[in-house]
Amino acid sequence: xxxxxxxxxxxxxxxxxxxxxxxPDALDLAVKVALAAGRPLLLRGKPGSGxxxxxxxxxxxxxxxxxxxxxTSQTRARDLQWTxxxxxxxxxxxxxxxxxxxxxxxxxxxxxxxxxxxxxxxxPQAAAQHALTVQQARTVTSxxxxxxxxxxxxxxxxxxxxxxxxxxxxxxxxxxxxLLAPLAMxxxxxxxxxxxxxxxxxxxxxxxxxxxxxxxxITTNEERELPQAFLRRCVxxxxxxxxxxxxxxxxxxxxxxxxxxxxxxxxxxxxTALASELKAVRDSARQEGVREPSTAEYLDxxxxxxxxxxxxxxxDAKWQAVRGLTLVKPQQLGA
Length: 335
Hints:
The chain is an alpha/beta fold. It has helices at 25-37, 51-62, 86-94, 96-99, 103-106, 117-122, 124-138, 150-153, 174-185, 228-232, 245-260, 265-288, 295-308, 317-326, 330-333, and strands at residues 41-44, 64-70, 82-84, 113-115, 157-166, 188-189, 196-197, 214-220, 235-238.
């Protein structure tokens, strides 16, 4: 049984443990193409369409290590490779007289570098050794130390990894451009220390085709246009939200089974009624030119109706309230 950092995710709405995902055939092919071509897979799609959930699912399905990074407006390209704690190093330099004869060793720039997700993906053994060296240099004991993803990845393949770079359109255009070289070369050099991070040989993996060993999944909500040079180097797939009732019910069934262990007849009836309602709301939103409710919001309505024992009935005040709280939000109403 696999452990998940922070405990089970059975009862959280936005799971990232990879246990639940309905993979469209076209997306499965896109994953295989990205691996064969040695290119990142750029997933386009609306918020709530399941882009971020795909990467941990693929990692779990293939038993590959998984690392994730959520991009913000403050993100720099190197944050995905390494971070450097310059503030701490300055504080240590100012305290140098108090550090005694170990001061030179402790001010070594390497000790202020923390491996990022790409470092862990490219060279997991080197990343672990580096992190442990830093820990030992800065504490009396290193017992109990581990990378945040170490527990989840403990029993997974050392030869393969999936890296999720989520919402890259939130960042400045310099970020995707800054990732071109490390992703193409499977390595980089840490500027502050000169340490070279290179693709790590592992086990019996074919060394002549190392790109088959890692999958980098990058998501975008398309809130900002991405640089053409970056797009040219990606395999690009658009994730279209499921629109047919049968597709939505299938997704609901998988989530119900994962959380509850079983799916009853009433659950399927509720999921079907909600899927029909979602389809109608989406059609109306499309005609009015406003945002359509997502698959995630459909699942929110499912859990709410199930927990509160509310049926999807047009003349039911409670259902209308839930509908307004989940499927028809102010964005859809134009408020």
